[in-house]
Amino acid sequence: MSWGTTGSVTTILVAGAGASPLVIGAVRMLLAAALLVAGARVIAGSVSVARPDRWRCLAMGVCMAGFQATYFTAVTMTGIAIAALIAICSAPLMITGLAAAFLDERLTRRVGGALGLGVVGTTLLIVGPRTTADLSSRFVAGGSLALAAGLSYALYVVIGKASLARTAPLPLAGANFAIAALVLAPALAGPEVAQQLALGWPWMLYLGVVTTAAAYAIYTIGLRDVSASVAGIASLLEPLTATLLGVFLFGERLGATGILGAGLLFAALSLLVFREGD
């Protein structure tokens, strides 16, 4: 749910502080990396990553940096709801395929049903409020970037799931976010960055602390105990949250089809909850 607020905050930062998507992503990673590394040292007692997982940690950092760059840019091109919906709708499908290929995860009927409901519901949320007139070249480019964000996220989850067999959640998260912060650091070198930070620091602080450090710490801990496929489907709560915020705060349209899609998403998430409780 906290991830679902990032699009709204990004819109506010772009409009009110003139912040660029890359600056937003870089600040988010830098703050989160500092907090996650500190948390790993205090709570887990170590920031070390198991030697076999170090290359995975590097790959996860690159994937997270790529997600920031593509997702936040897509938000400015397609709107809050659409960017989140495309990115996170595509991710569970990619995660399921990658997990089956590389983690030998078996897709049960219940998880498959939740995946189907979730993807159909998210598709209805995407298609419902739009017409062919909305499909400008800018929208198509933004949609492509959102798909790239979905792939980056899917790779992050699958690689992270494999790494958690040997490495504790907080050290893993702290290390890969530190790598992501280094990858995006050049975005903070521009002369206009200081003004963006001065105008938008409260919202950037929220993104870094709440929607990144805290959220990914919780997510990585949870990923240790559920399959990658279930974790990917559960994250469909993010676009649902983003859609509702886009509708109620920024006047984005939903319509009857979108409402049906939201209902299917709730059904998919409920199916996962019941599965985990069986």
Overall morphology = globular
Number of helices: 11
Rg computed from alpha carbons, rounded to a whole number of angstroms: 18 Å
Q: Percentage of helical residues?
A: over 70%
Low-confidence stretches: none
Beta-strand portion reads: under 5%
Structural classification:
mainly alpha
The biggest sheet, with number of strands, parallel, antiparallel or mixed sense and barrel status, is: none
Kindly state the mean pLDDT as a whole number?
A: 85
Q: What is the succession of H and E elements?
A: HHHHHHHHHHH
By DSSP, the count of extended strands is 0
Give the domain tally: 1
N/C terminus separation: 24 Å
Which labels suit this protein?
278 residues; globular; mainly alpha; 79% helix
